Write the C-alpha cells for this entry.
Amino acid sequence: MKKSDFFQELNNALMVNDAVLNDKSEIHLTSLSTLSIIAFIDEYFEKQVKASDLKNIQNVTDLINLIGPENIN
Amino acid sequence: MGSRLGHIGVYLPEKTLSNLELSENFPEWSAERIGEKIGISMRHLAAENETALDLAVKAAEAILTDELKNRIDFILLCTQSPDYFLPTTACLLQERLNLRTNIGALDFNLGCSGFVYGLALSKGLITAGIAECILLVMSETYSKHIHRNDKSNRSIFGDAAAATIVERSTIEKIGEFVLGTDGSGKDDLIVLNGGMRNRILESEHKLNNPGGDEMFPNCLYMNGPEVFNFTIKNVPTLFSETLVRNNTSLDAIDFVIFHQANKFMLDYLKKKIKIPDDKFIIDMEETGNTVSATIPVALDSALKKGVIKVGNKVLLAGFGVGYSWGAVIIEI
C-alpha cells in the first residue's frame, strides 16, 4: 500500500479527518477506534491483529511495525 | 414432511435508555458518536423486578391463541439470564402460559447464536417425530449482568424477548444448518463469577484482565476487539458454507439477517462478504443488541414493514458468546 493512501485510510479509521498524520503522530485508541483499526488492517493487509497487540501502540510507527513495514511503501 | 417458522411475537420492556441519558452518566461519551458508530439510539431495559421469564411470557402471549396453546408439545427457551439456577425457565413458562403438562420443555444456554440453534433443535425434534409444534423463545435481560460503570456494554446491549412457533409442515421451509463452536473464546465474553467455578464474592472490586481493560468480575465482561476478530474470521466462512450446504448462491437469497451486534460490525461484515445493501437487514436502532433475540426481532420488524414477504428466502446467521455460531436458510 502506498504510504499516502495508508495515511488517508488511517485518518478515516481513527476518525481524525482534519489531522495531518505522520510517522511520529501519537495514537490514542478508544474502544471504537480499536475496532476501526482491526477492520482497516484486515481489509487492506488481510491480517488479523490481537487486541492485546494494539494496547502497546503509541504512535504511527508502532502501528506500521505491527502491520509490517514491507507492506507500506 | 418438513418444518416451518410461524409468527413471531416480540416484547420490549417499557423502560428505555437513550444515548443522551448515557452521555449524561458518562460525559466523555458522545451521544452523537455512539449513535453514528454503533447504530443504536435507544435500548429497552427490564425493570428491577422484571425477569427473562416475564419477558418470555409477554412475547409468547403476543402470538398464542387458545387453539395454538393446545397444540404446543414442546418449549425451547434460550437465555443466559435465567430466573433461577434451577428450576428450568421453560418449565416456569409452561405454568405461566397454562400450557398442557404432557409436553417437553428445556432451556438452552446460548447467546447470539441462540436463535439459529433453536431452529436446529426444533427441526431435529420435528424430524425425529418427537414434537410437532414447538414454542421457541429467546429471552434475555443482559442489562442485569452489566455493571453500572461499564459504558461500553451499557451502550451496546438491550433487553428483549422473541417467541415463535416452529411446526411440522408438508414442505420443508427450514434448510440445512452450518454450526460451529470454539470454547477457546470463553474469556472474551463472560460473566466470571456466580457459577460454581467462581462463586459470588462479597466485595465487588475491579480486576484488570490481561488485555488491560477494566473487568467487573461479578458482571458481564466483553473484549469487544477480540469478539470482532472472531466474527471477521468466522462469519465469512460460515456464510459461504451455508450457501454450499444448501446448494444455493447469494443471488438466490432474498435477504440476509445477521445477529445484530452493532452497526459497525455489520457494515464491515457486509462489505467483506460483498452482500448487496438491499439484501442486508440492519434493524437495531431502537433495541440495541438483544443477544439471542436480535434475529427474530429484526425478522419480525422486516415482516411487519413488508420488506420481507411470504416466499422469500432468508439467510440467518448468529454468532457470539462461547464462541458459538450457526447459520441456516429459511423460507418465509
Q: What stands out?
A: The interface with chain B takes residues 31-32, 34-36, 38-39, 42-43, 48, 50-52, 54-55 of chain A (CB under 8 Å).
